[in-house]
Amino acid sequence: MAPIDVDSILRELQNRQPIFHSEADFQHALAWEIHTRYPNATVRLEIHPGRIGPREYIDIWVKHGDAICVIELKYKTRKLDAIWNGEEFHLLNQGAQDIGRYDFIKDVVRVERFVTGHPMASGYAVLLTNDDTYWRTTTRLDTADSSFRIHDDRELSGALRWSEATGPGTMRGRENPLILTNLHRIHWIDYSELPEKGPNKFRYALLRIESPQ
């Protein structure tokens, strides 16, 4: 059977749901869209499939025929009050973009580790946000999270670490370097733009990870 095409699914979803209340809302909407596109597929949320880590869970796990697809997603927001289709949305200003970048790349590492142990598997890491500091290019190289920057056209590879000047509070629970097996190029894609004033533009980064041949 054909592999799960998350890119085209997101492009369809953006016409139906341009904004989400939370990461869980985004997760459920994406899972339902996958179920609609692939009605014979098995779709599960928040499962521990093994071969990743003792306390790690996959956000969305899909089995379609002999193929398995795993999806890790993040939804990072700046404060925005909006109404869409008669429904109110009140997004919080989450901040902590350095931690958000680290956690997104950690998702990529997790998916790489999973597909390496499953020859018939593929995976995706998705970050959807209305916070332009994630996709905006910066020339500053002296920030704590400079290795974890994910602006447009950035290449990620090898071992990524916090800078030596990073405070222990920032790194707490995230001290370990993130070691990528593959090279990944970040490309940001427009998702939606709402009529409200403020950070009303949503974009997403989508990385596809294949199992080794």
Structure description:
With 213 residues, the chain is an alpha+beta fold. 23% of the residues lie in helices and 34% in strands. The protein is built from 4 helices and 10 strands; from the N terminus they run H-H-E-E-E-E-E-H-E-E-H-E-E-E. The chain has a 6-stranded mixed β-sheet with strand order 1-2-3-6-10-9, with helices on both faces. A two-stranded antiparallel ribbon has the order 4-5. The longest helix is centred in the middle third of the chain and has 20 residues, at 97-116. The radius of gyration is 17 Å and the shape is globular.
Describe the secondary-structure layout.
Layout: H1 6-16, H2 23-37, E1 42-47, E2 58-64, E3 67-76, E4 80-84, E5 87-91, H3 97-116, E6 121-129, E7 155-160, H4 168-171, E8 178-185, E9 188-193, E10 201-210
Structural key phrases:
single chain; 4 helices; alpha+beta; globular; six-stranded mixed beta sheet; two-stranded antiparallel ribbon; 213 residues
Helix content: 10-25%
Order of helices and strands: HHEEEEEHEEHEEE
Largest sheet: 6 strands, mixed
> Could you report the average pLDDT, rounded to the nearest whole number?
88
The tally of strands reads 10
- Order of strands, main sheet, comes to 1-2-3-6-10-9
Distance between the termini: 18 Å
**Discrete helix count:** 4
- Overall 3D shape: globular
